[in-house]
Design goal:
Helix content is 3%, strand content 40%. The protein is an all-beta fold. InterPro entries: FN3_sf, Ig-like_fold. This is Fibronectin type-III domain-containing protein.
């Protein structure tokens, strides 16, 4: 087959002799499009009705196609069953338009064949319990990408009782906004051990989800604060019953259980008749002196233990007064009785009736007129009204002094023993 500008043709050898060749040529004349159309268009009007309906060509959406789903080109005319329609495959999507179904259609749709990929998500980041209030805090980071074909997404938070997060779960939060990166589960049972999972879901249709690279949290227990318990009672003592020097209150540094699960700041308050006279005392302090009480007035002192959760407990308390004793004990009677009880000389004197008497002092001297007390020697401090001195002693004279709780005052009675 050969071709020139006006025809297609073929040449064949029909006969050969010694002096001649007989050839045959078959040709097909070429038509221009215009000449062909002039010849054919007259027949087309006989085959179809024209025009039968206004027909609009479909427009390809400018949005990125992603996911295994149909997108309607209008909200009202989604693709319906049809035949004789236009179908265009772009390599990533199929566009269907027009066709016939009990009438000619001017609707269509777009089918996306590119699979929607899962979000790029690191998963759950932390789970924490504040140890005081009910609730477990779960935190995560936003995905670096919501996946191919997706522009946004949501989160679900799941709670497991299985350490691998592969068994059944309870959804404690669903469809959280993509800007949210934390959630507090207040439905947990106190004391129970849980594991949490955060699932990122994108907005493909249908969506694709993932629990991320860290798909299961560590174990977490929901704990709550309780008031301190196991308190020992505090003590209270008058610093000095002779002067207005205050009342010292002491207590244990720790109760049996602080009740705060080891979090927060622990302090103490000192209460006098129910009113705080010292608050926020640093943990570890175990005493306080109240110098502001009215002397000779009885108060009840208590300690309030404040734990790190802001919960408190108070001791039973101790009632005591700051005594200011300004009245000395009476004098020792001016009589010193002496008897011999071998090998000692026994000294006795009349007992002093005084509630705050501590003891007596017995002094001795080798002379009768030595200055007191510099020239006298303290021999003993008996708490009873008697004292024994060896007969071999060199002391010739003795003095007995009563000593009461007010340390600065001495009440003396002198009795000299001239000889035994």
């Amino acid at each position: 087959m050969k071709e020139d500008d006006t025809r297609f043709y073929a040449v064949a050898l029909l006969k050969r002799t010694a002096n001649s060749l007989t050839l045959a040529t078959v040709k097909w004349a070429k038509y221009s499009f215009d000449r062909w159309w002039d010849d054919i268009k007259g027949n087309l009007s006989l085959m179809i009705s024209e025009p039968f309906e206004q027909y609009n060509l479909p427009e390809i959406l400018t949005t990125t196609c992603g996911g295994d789903y149909w997108i309607a080109t209008t909200l009202t005319n989604v693709p319906a069953a049809r035949r004789l329609h236009t179908a265009v495959w772009t390599g990533t999507e199929m566009i269907v338009w027009g066709g016939f179904d009990s009438g000619y259609l001017n609707t269509g749709g777009q089918y996306c064949a590119v699979a929607c990929s899962a979000p790029v998500f690191t998963g759950i980041e932390t789970v924490t319990d504040d140890a005081c209030d009910t609730g477990i805090s779960i935190a995560w980071q936003q995905p670096t990408s919501w996946g191919n074909g997706a522009s946004d997404g949501t989160y679900d938070v799941r709670r497991y009782e299985n350490a691998t997060c592969l068994a059944s779960w309870v959804t404690v939060a669903s469809d959280l906004n993509s800007s949210v990166t934390s959630f507090i589960d207040i439905t947990a049972t106190v004391g129970a051990t849980y594991y949490y999972q955060v699932v990122a879901k994108n907005n493909c249709d249908p969506f694709t989800e993932t629990a991320g690279t860290t798909f299961c949290s560590t174990a977490i227990v929901d704990q709550i604060g309780t008031t301190p318990s196991g308190l020992n009672n505090n003590t209270a003592a008058d610093v000095s019953v002779c002067t207005n020097t205050g009342v010292e209150i002491t207590w244990d540094a720790d109760p049996g259980n602080w009740g705060d699960n080891g979090v927060g700041t622990r302090t103490y308050d000192v209460l006098r008749d129910g009113n705080s006279i010292a608050s926020g005392i640093t943990y570890g302090t175990t005493n306080y002196t109240d110098a502001g009480a009215t002397p000779d007035t009885t108060y009840t002192y208590k300690i309030r233990y404040n734990n790190g959760c802001g919960l408190s407990s108070i001791t039973t308390g101790i009632a005591i007064a700051d005594i200011d004793d300004t009245t000395p004990c009476p004098n020792v009677a001016n009589t010193l009785f002496i008897s011999k009880v071998l090998p000692n000389a026994s000294l006795t004197w009349l007992d002093v009736t005084c509630a705050d008497l501590l003891y007596y002092r017995v002094y001795g001297s080798t002379t009768y007129d030595a200055p007191f007390p510099s020239g006298w020697t303290l021999l003993d401090t008996p708490i009873v009204n008697s004292y024994d001195e060896p007969l071999s002693s060199n002391y010739l004279a003795f003095k007995t002094v009563s000593r009461y709780l007010r340390q600065r005052i001495l009440v003396l009675i002198i009795r000299e023993l001239l000889s035994l």
